[in-house]
Amino acid sequence: MEIGFNKPCIAGRELEYIVQAVENCQLSGDGPFTARCSRLLETCLGAEKILLTHSCTAALEMAALLCDIQPGDEVIVPSYTFVSTVNAFVLRGGVPVFADIRQDTLNMDESLVESLITPRTKAIVPVHYAGVGCNMDVLNAIAERHGLLVVEDAAQGVGAKYKGKALGTIGHLGCYSFHETKNIISGEGGALAVNFPAFRDRAEILREKGTNRSAFFRGMVDKYTWVDTGSSYLPGELVAAFLYGQLEKADTILQKRLAVWQNYHALLEDLECSGRIRRPVIPEECEHNGHMYYILTSGLEERSRLIDFLRERGIQAVFHYVPLHNSPKGRGFAGELALPVTEKMADRLLRLPCYNTLTLAEQEAVSGALHAFYGA
Known about the structure:
Number of domains: 2
CATH class of the largest domain: Alpha Beta
Order of helices and strands: HHEHEHEHEHEEEEEHHHHHEEHHHEH
Number of strands: 12
Largest sheet: 7 strands, mixed
Low-confidence stretches: none
Distance between the termini: 21 Å
CATH topology of the largest domain: Aspartate Aminotransferase, domain 2
Strand order of the largest sheet: 1-9-8-5-4-2-3
Helix content: 25-40%
Shape: globular
CATH architecture of the largest domain: 3-Layer(aba) Sandwich
CATH superfamily of the largest domain: Type I PLP-dependent aspartate aminotransferase-like (Major domain)
């Protein structure tokens, strides 16, 4: 049995909508399917304004522009994240200040954030790892005390909630991903939630290459022109058409993903109880989306042996991020910074195959291989 790490899934009318987009004779951005996706996301997430983008990276870059990041401005981010979280701000001249993570959720440790604030701090960027919410109450309170902006990297968080509120809608801005490895997919794709009213008009302009084109098409101006710094952050209409088919089935997709997560959690309970691995932790205030299932091994050497063991049995399991503060580029900002929890967890974490069509038999095969490795 060959079990790949990820398998993109058709959930509904995606291919039919792609044909419709072609027949509509508009393949460029901001067509009918783009508008439908934005409206549906606003409804599902309870967001005031959603702008579709061609990636979560694009949404993060828009966020950096909206935050008016200037050279030397500091942004507090976890080191345990994908490079796009940091690149978006570095491209504007920002300086990442890396924070350690919590042992339970692997999210930014909110208890450490205030000690990292300096007169140059401009924003806090929490990353909701594995679709489990950061402690947004504490982070928002810190931001309010110090006059900072909060940009949620909710790339993995579509469909997840913190205290009943959708991830990405709690800070000033929220960034989502629809990459093929996420729950809701369009191959590449993303979205920006604009939760701060003062940012809404400018966000439209930045997304349209710095022009007021959107206002022109609404009849608010008689011509459109260059009015601000921006770039081309629109997705193509084929991407939006595929995404709309996914969004229509979002509840079904989420239920299937959560079922996969719960199956793993039950199958591996005994390995955790016997001290061989650690399973994910979900705080009571968090409603996760089953985005990924990972285990924590005892250390790097054991994880490496386990990856090889699973590969020999046709199972693809992967580790996740190399901590950014230890990367060649990151060391230029962080120096010899030590983040002990980040470093320990990065060496231990192993992601198991997780996608909507993963069968119970395939999960049992993964579980059986893990039990065989640990002699359980």
